[in-house]
Amino acid sequence: MRVKSESRRLAIVDAARQVFSETGFESASMNEIARRVGFSKATVYNYFSSKEEVFLSVMETFARRQLAEAFNALEAEGDLLPLLKNFSETYLQSITEPEILALEKIVAHEAHRSKIGQFFYEHGPKRGLTKLENFLEQHIKKGNLCSAEPRVCAQHFLALIIAEYYDPLFLNAIERPDPDELKASAARAVDVFLRAYRP
């Protein structure tokens, strides 16, 4: 009986992330993932039953790792403005990382013929939206934001954060802006959001 270890599973996931990012979902193979990680194909199949299962694990693990800093910022205590700025800057930097964009393109391509899109939404964007919703609801109750539906409020804020750069980056229409440009864009999103929702 083969003994599974978390370190081996994560090694497979990291190797698979590189393969999927470089070749796309269709061209990726379990053989290449096994070769990249340096394990036998049998070992990889001992952890994951299919390429789809590996990809779902890649999405969950990598998205959680990349976006954890942004959403952890929502758990901090302090005034609303610096908390919103910290979240928006960190979120925008993360969501525009080339590897995140590459994986999201794969999700978009595969969503119509599998449950990959649904899985990604449930384990990524939806969880993040709920965290932001809960954070904003607390500040609505404190009177720091005007009375509003917290989920819609959260959706508006996320839309403002990605408004300037996400679509053209996703479509390879522009080069990724430097960190200062992304920081300025995030600050503008906070400004517009507070103009709409501050009492």
Report on this model:
This is Transcriptional regulator. The chain is an all-alpha fold. The chain folds into two domains: 1-49, Homeodomain-like (Arc Repressor Mutant, subunit A, Orthogonal Bundle), CATH 1.10.10; 63-197, Tetracycline Repressor, domain 2, CATH 1.10.357. The chain contains eleven helices and no strands. The longest helix is centred in the N-terminal third of the chain and has 22 residues, at 6-27. It is elongated. The mean pLDDT is 90.
Spell out the blueprint of helices and strands:
Layout: H1 6-27, H2 30-37, H3 41-47, H4 51-72, H5 80-95, H6 98-110, H7 116-123, H8 125-141, H9 150-162, H10 166-170, H11 179-197
Keywords: DNA-binding, Transcription, Transcription regulation
DNA-binding region: 29-48
GO molecular function: DNA-binding transcription factor activity; transcription cis-regulatory region binding
What does this entry show, briefly?
The chain has helices spanning 6-27, 30-37, 41-47, 51-72, 80-95, 98-110, 116-123, 125-141, 150-162, 166-170, 179-197. With 199 residues, it is mostly helical.
